[in-house]
Amino acid sequence: MRKTALSLAIAAFLLASSIDLHPATLNGVTLPDTIQARGTPLVLNGMGLRTKYGFKIYVAGLYLQQKSSDPDAIIKSDAPRRVVMQFLHGASKSQMADAFKESFTDNAPDAEAALKPDVDRFFGQLDAVHQGDQMVFTYIPGTGTIFVLNGGEKLTVPGPAFAQLLFSVWFGPKPPNPELKKGLLGQ
To answer: How many of the other CB atoms lie within 10 Å of CB of 87?
Structure first.
């Protein structure tokens, strides 16, 4: 009996240790498989590379409570979620604002207009980014969307509407590039 129990315990340990809990790496950027967002565990759903005119701009990672490949559900979810952008190439403040503005207009023009004061506050907090900089956008129900740049909190926009607009950048019908969206969706 003890031999059977010991064998089962060893088998369970080996199975648990074979589950891939290692960080993921894409284009030299490594992100952990799991994180905590204000006490809520999130798992890395996928990683993608943003390119423009052949330049590698950033690697992004999407964290959710449970993995999903449904972009509409990710946008509309009232659950904690996070996008991490690790920059491989610098961009000026105006280039950052232009990129977000274009994505908002392409993916959710009605929401962009309805949320103009929040969008303007967000644009006011954008800064130039350099290679190695990191932007993090975390949505927490009851708190809102928290924008962090290089570890420093820049802005919190209350409510779910701004989060839906922001997440439409990557998961709407016109993402910055299709490969980025596919990677974030784990496809």
So the answer is: 21
For the chain, the C-alpha Rg in angstroms (whole number) is: 19
Domain edges within the chain: 22-184
Q: Give the Cα separation of 171 and 107 in Å (integer).
A: 9
pTM over 0.90: no
Which position has the token pair 């961009």? 91
Q: How far apart are the C-alpha atoms of 138 and 142, rounded to whole Å?
A: 12
The first and second tokens of residue 9, run together, are: 């315990």
Residue 143 near residue 99 (C-beta atoms within 8 A):
no
CA 30, CA 49: separation in Å to the nearest integer? 12
Pairing, β 55-64 against β 81-87: antiparallel
Q: 22-184 adopts what CATH topology?
A: Chalcone isomerase (3.50.70)
Query: Closest Cα to residue 155, out of 127, 104, 121, 128?
Result: 121
Provide the H-helix boundaries in the chain.
Answer: 2-18, 71-76, 93-107, 109-114, 116-125, 160-171, 178-184
Query: What proportion of the chain, given as a percentage, has pLDDT over 90?
Result: 87
